[in-house]
């Protein structure tokens, strides 16, 4: 499936998004480097528009719509970052967005989506209800469904974060990205394949939500089973397209324990002086649990987002 995605498409996406997305900074910390024995370069997508890398994929997907599709707008179901990203991308493109959100989604996220000009439709907090509500909206409005990760244009858009990181650094030995649905990691793998083939790409996942690790090991896509992790952005199952790209190109999936995830979150807070979602701590957490593997290496890390639930965030730092 991924053989259809070309280097030219990735370059086109980067060109398309040049004036739409922020070129996010890369941070480093001597203290963290000494603790892990490696040179780490943190790509800060928490500073991206709408607060996460998701804006890249959503913006590129919207840019690829035909004129008739744009007239009818876009729709998706999301309790968080993708909904905000698609709402903002639609607003900038001057088209309608219908975002289906579960009733238990945080109020602050519902308000953020509305603030970007989208229509929020509340549904029951089940996957079936989310999907049915989206289908109803499609039938009623003709809006184009835009999924959060299981779509080629989303993956191509997400690749631009890694493309930028390769330009901002020299000869990375490793690139680590958290993996939930797999959009960010799929994009990182394709960017490395075309623009930095000597860089090994590793997915980072919570031990309590390790469907990607199990899927790669089994050679088939296995669903997430009762995920138990503070990293709420990584509780979803791998998408189909994403599994294909990851299984064909990945070097390794590493997992981390919850205590290590919290330790990594604290390190990033104290030494990088940034607020990042728990999901973003996974790459650093997996390095902490595998120090010998990365010793003396140059390692890129994508910090995926900064849309935190403050109560959960500060509780985790105690």
Automatic annotation (TrEMBL):
It comes from the Bacteria. PROSITE patterns: DEHYDRATASE_SER_THR. It holds the Pfam family PALP. Its cofactor is Mn(2+); Ca(2+); pyridoxal 5'-phosphate; Mg(2+). CDD domains: Thr-dehyd. Signal peptide: none annotated. GO terms for biological process: D-serine biosynthetic process. InterPro entries: Ser/Thr_deHydtase_PyrdxlP-BS, TrpB-like_PALP, TrpB-like_PALP_sf. Residues 18-305 form the Tryptophan synthase beta chain-like PALP domain. Keywords: Lyase, Magnesium, Pyridoxal phosphate. GO terms for molecular function: ATP binding; L-serine ammonia-lyase activity; magnesium ion binding; pyridoxal phosphate binding; serine racemase activity; threonine racemase activity. Transmembrane segments: none annotated. This is Threonine/serine dehydratase. It comes from Salibacter halophilus.
């Amino acid at each position: 499936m991924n053989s259809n995605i070309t280097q030219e498409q990735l370059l086109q996406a980067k060109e398309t998004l040049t004036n739409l997305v922020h070129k996010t900074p890369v941070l480093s910390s001597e203290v963290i480097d000494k603790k892990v024995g490696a040179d780490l370069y943190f790509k800060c997508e928490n500073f991206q528009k709408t607060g996460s890398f998701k804006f890249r994929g959503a913006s590129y997907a919207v840019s690829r719509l035909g004129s008739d599709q744009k007239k009818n707008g876009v729709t998706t179901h999301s309790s968080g970052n993708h909904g905000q990203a698609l709402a903002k991308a639609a607003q900038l493109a001057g088209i309608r967005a219908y975002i289906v959100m579960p009733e238990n989604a945080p109020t602050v996220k519902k308000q953020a989506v509305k603030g970007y000009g989208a229509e929020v439709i509340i549904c029951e907090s089940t996957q079936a209800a989310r999907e049915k509500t989206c289908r109803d909206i499609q039938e009623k409005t003709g809006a184009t469904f835009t999924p959060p990760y299981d779509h080629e244009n989303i993956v191509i858009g997400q690749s631009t974060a890694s493309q930028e990181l390769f330009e901002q650094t020299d000869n990375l030995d490793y690139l680590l990205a958290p993996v939930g649905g797999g959009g960010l990691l799929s994009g990182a793998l394709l960017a490395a394949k075309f623009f930095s083939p000597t860089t090994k790409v590793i997915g980072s996942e919570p031990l309590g939500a390790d469907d990607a690790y199990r899927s790669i090991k089994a050679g088939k896509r296995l669903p997430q089973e009762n995920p138990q992790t503070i990293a709420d952005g990584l509780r979803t199952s791998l998408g189909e397209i994403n599994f294909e790209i990851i299984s064909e190109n990945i070097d390794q999936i590493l997992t981390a324990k919850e205590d290590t995830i919290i330790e990594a979150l604290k390190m990033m807070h104290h030494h990088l002086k940034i607020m990042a979602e728990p999901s973003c701590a996974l790459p650093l957490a997996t390095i902490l649990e595998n120090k010998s593997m990365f010793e003396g290496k140059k390692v890129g890390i994508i910090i995926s987002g900064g849309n935190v639930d403050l109560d959960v965030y500060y509780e985790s730092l105690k």
